[in-house]
Amino acid sequence: MANMIRKTPVNLILIGFMATGKSTLAKALAPGLGFDVVDTDDLIVKRAGKPITDIFSEVGQDGFRDLECEVLRDLLNRERMVISTGGGIVTRAANIELIRSLGMVIWLDASIDVIIERASKSDDRPLLNTDDPRRSVEELMAKRIELYREAADECIDVDDLSSEELAYGIAESARFWFSASH
Ligand code: S3P
Description:
Blueprint: E1 12-16, H1 22-33, E2 36-39, H2 40-48, H3 52-75, E3 81-84, H4 93-102, E4 104-109, H5 112-119, H6 133-151, E5 154-157, H7 163-179
Parallel strand pairs: 1-3, 1-4, 2-3, 4-5
Helix pairs in contact: 1-7, 2-3, 3-4, 5-6
The protein binds shikimate-3-phosphate.
Shikimate-3-phosphate binds at residues 18, 22, 41, 52, 86-88, 125-127.
């Protein structure tokens, strides 16, 4: 876990695997903190003018990661945001640097079973539209887990907590974090 003392802008960045509840939690967290909600996937869709599945089929995962990098750059110098990010954002080293320079980074961690169960409710994640989604989750998680750890200031296990419970705990942590000299 990254624990270097640094002067961070007042933003919260939620990272973690697909279907760990980042977007829902961002919406639950923001009002209590008086922050805006920003979702990098939404920004990408707006910028490209097409859904994520179309972006992946037209420019591939690499093209999508380029867009992720661009929208993160656009957020630099803004404050008071809860930023929900796509699950693969940490796969680019430059993105990890950008995320860490944007504020306090919270990693939402979930078990494979919970991810599979939650992800099965939608089919808009191209990387999980495979013959064996469990295997895809396991393989991607194995590649990414150390990257989440590297990017995060704090890790929270989300399996057994509602977004309201998570929001309460994270808001407390954030207030402490921003009042201390990070
Ligand atoms: C991705 C996660 C998705 C979205 C895209 C790629 C990934 O976001 O950015 O489908 O590589 O893990 P969510 O984590 O919000 O599902």
